[in-house]
Amino acid sequence: MIKLTIDGKQVEVEKDITILKAAKTVGIDIPTLCYFELRDMNIENRPGGCRICVVEIKGRRNLAPACSTKVENGIEVNTHNIRVLNARRTVLELILSDHPAECLTCAKNGNCELQSMAQQLGVRELPYQGEQSTYRKDTSPAIIRDIDKCIMCRRCEMMCNEVQTVGALSAINRGFMAVVAPAFEMNLEKSSCTYCGQCVSVCPTGALTEVDHSRNVINALADPAKTVVVQTAPAVRAALGEEFGLEPGTLVTGKMVAALRRLGFDYVFDTDFAADLTIMEEGSELLDRLSRYLKGDKSVKLPILTSCCPGWVNFFEHNFPEMRDIPSTAKSPQQMFGPIAKEYFGKKLGIDRKNMIVVSIMPCLAKKYECQRDEFKVNGDPDVNFSLSTRELAHLIKASNIDFNSLPEEEFDNPLGESTGASVIFGTTGGVIEAACRTAYELYTGKKLEKVDFMELRGFENIRHATIDFDGLPINIGIAHGLGNARKLLEDIKDGKSEFHAIEIMACPGGCIGGGGQPYHFGDSEILKKRAAAVYQEDAGKTIRKSHENPFIIQLYKEFLGKPLGEKSHHLLHTKYFDKSASVFVEE
Amino acid sequence: MAKIKLSERKIQELKEVCKSFNNEKGELINVLHKAQGLFGYLPAEVQEVIAKELNVSVAHVYGVVTFYSFFTMVPKGEHPISICLGTACYVRGAEKVLEEFKRILNVQVGETTSDGKFSLSCLRCVGACGLAPVVMVGEKVYGRVSPDGVKDIVAEYRS
Ligand code: SF4
Ligand code: SF4
Ligand code: SF4
Ligand code: FES
User: Active-site residue A328, yes or no?
Assistant: First the structure.
């Protein structure tokens, strides 16, 4: 153990930890900007570049950055004497001298760490008025890069390269012109970006934000000729409350439904319904491949990989196109919902698909891109018209003067609002495969599954595996969240080393509860854990907890779809994948 | 960015360069150095090949290329013009000469004219201080250049 004093307090900590963390143990929060950490997920950014976190160590000539200086026996640290405060303020003023003062119109207004730092340190004027670097804005289908607002903390680079192993971003140029950008400063759209949005989740400023589609939705709601239908993803209800000051992990399903109704949506439906449908199709596909494989069919590819995460789909289309026949062909729940709403529900009511607008509320930025993909359109009309993030929904509610916290709890509309516990857990890592197991077990064995909680599939470890007993048949399951972890499992498959029958992959650390469109967590991994707990809580509270028992799913197959993997399902609920490896950077 | 198509042979040569460094990520700077020797500059395609061979992202390679001013992504012009900005040249008005070149050629330092004829760069002292300000076009040295003389120098190579 190491003993030191921080602001006069005696501190005893393990060796090898930083002054920043040591100070936290005695309740001293040293301000940081470039530093970023998600504990439990091995995510840390410690470039030591911004120097906002400087502290004085008695007897040393230079101030030391607390985020990257280790504790030592006997040192006396001061985190707030006049020298430290002045240095910290100067650092901030210098950063601000090359930063556009556009807070009023910035998408990050109110959520910006640079802004709160200026407030915390009491900056009241900008003494250094220098030249400002100017870069053009880059708008992709999901993400806007407004790089003039980049402060070079390099968190996004860490996320994209180390955590996601996508490598779309890098620090470029130097000195005053230094920013983070894709290769050759091309648009993000031309890079290998998956739109997972994790860079947006961690960017402290407005340099990276999502493309906002709220206006399109407001316009659709105002158009009397349109029937506007909304679907909400599982992870949204576990996080939306945070935007209204509620404790992380507070489930706001009923209030969310009420708010959507107040906003004027004609039908408030649930993506969870489509998640149940996904399980029907994906689970059947798993069983189909498995039984053919067991019969000795050599053409069958195992493991089967889940395909409900569009960030992950983009990743393998770019990086592992030769393996694109392994993932399930089932569309994501968002994209299953679209055609069911327009082709089944809409037709039933006699509404032409052109007069129906389907909006999705997602924890996700990749879904913004996904709903724009050509294969998800009929004669140019997208199955899902607009995808809003959890954050955008919160803005919309606030802008409409709806007092969220005093809303009553309301129920989803039927038929596309009914869902089971299995579909709710789609929102967290491990949930999709658990839901699939519940259904596949019963369909395969013909027996009733007594214990529906597969605890062995839960948790936050980067890569998890478990063997599930299908009544004598051991099924090996793999789970990865975060694309870097997914890459490891894929490399194993490529090398013929994979022992798995089925693998669940989610692009975002933690799964969708940690999605790129969720309320900002500012590096607090406890928030993610609480969201996951909320999702499991909602599951446990449902009477029906297996997708194939959802009465409206049963009805949908009877009335319309026929059977899972049938012709109609194939046409409406399955998709194909493309080799996009070459499209990256090829410019004519 | 206009995309050049590298010949198979050149790509092979480039791969050999990477191989000579064991395709080591850590050797990126050395590989880029050699590659620039081979091609005279580092077009996007060259960076893509290097990224693939060394198994790093193209964005990272580009990051390194833009960090070091030694590396360039623009081919040198047929007649590379260098202006000495060493102390002696500087005090004798080299900056005005540079401004004049920029104006006449309509390029910035580090750029090449659109017809590919001239490129413009700056040098630190070339050791001909007696002739300051000094301008070099290819191997040829021009001494005591004044802003007025710039257009004559350019004209020599324009025809
Ligand atoms: S969205 Fe994901 S893949 Fe794209 S740049 Fe950001 S972190 Fe990288
Ligand atoms: S874009 Fe944002 S996260 Fe990335 S370096 Fe700039 S400020 Fe940091
Ligand atoms: S994990 Fe969820 S939020 Fe993240 S990209 Fe995939 S679907 Fe979107
Ligand atoms: S937070 Fe420590 S250097 Fe940036």
Answer: yes
Nearest Cα residue in chain A from B62: A183
Give the C-alpha separation, A192 to A584, whole Å. 6
Which ligand minimizes its atom distance to the CA of A332? 3
Residue A351, Cβ neighbours under 10 Å: how many?
17
Can you tell me the mean pLDDT for A432-450?
95
Residue among A45, A98, A117, A151 whose CB has most ligand 2 atoms within 8 A, to mutate: A151
Query: Which of 3.10.20.740, 3.40.50.1110, 3.10.450.50, 3.90.380.10 would CATH assign to domain A2-94?
Result: 3.10.20.740
pLDDT for position A588 = 32
Q: Is A308 considered catalytic here? A: yes
Catalytic residue among A56, A317, A370, A538: A370
Pocket test for ligand 3, best of A506, A513, A518 (most atoms within 8 A of CB): A506
Assess whether A375 carries a catalytic annotation. Answer: yes
User: How many CA within 13 A on the CB side of residue B60?
Assistant: 20
Per-domain boundaries in chain A? 2-94, 215-573
Q: Of residues A367, A368, A530, A546, which has the active-site annotation?
A: A367
Asked whether the beta carbons of residue B59 and residue A191 sit closer than 8 angstroms, the reply is yes
Give the pLDDT band (50/70/90) at residue B1: very low
Q: For A295-343, how does the pLDDT look when each residue is reduced to its tens digit (9 = 90+)?
A: 999 889 899 999 999 999 999 999 999 999 999 999 999 999 999 999 9
Judged by DSSP in three states, A136 sits in coil
Is it true that domain A215-573 has CATH number 3.40.50.1780? Answer: yes
Predicted confidence (pLDDT) per residue in A92-146, tens digit? 999 998 899 899 999 999 999 999 999 999 888 888 876 777 788 899 999 999 9
Q: In the sheet where A54-57 sits, what is the strand order?
A: A9-13, A2-6, A76-78, A54-57, A64-65
Catalytic residue from among A308, A309, A364, A437: A308
Q: Which of B57, B60, B69 to mutate to test the interface with A (most CBs of A within 10 A)?
A: B57
Q: How far apart are CA A254 and CA A173, in angstroms?
A: 50
The closest residue, in CA terms, to atom 2 on ligand 3 is: A512
How large is the ipTM? 0.82
How confident is residue A177, by pLDDT bands cut at 50, 70 and 90? confident
pLDDT at position A321: 95
DSSP letter, residue A303: S
The CA angle A536-A523-A43, to the nearest 5 degrees, is: 90
For chain B, the average pLDDT equals 89
- Please say if the pLDDT value at position B94 is more than 70: yes
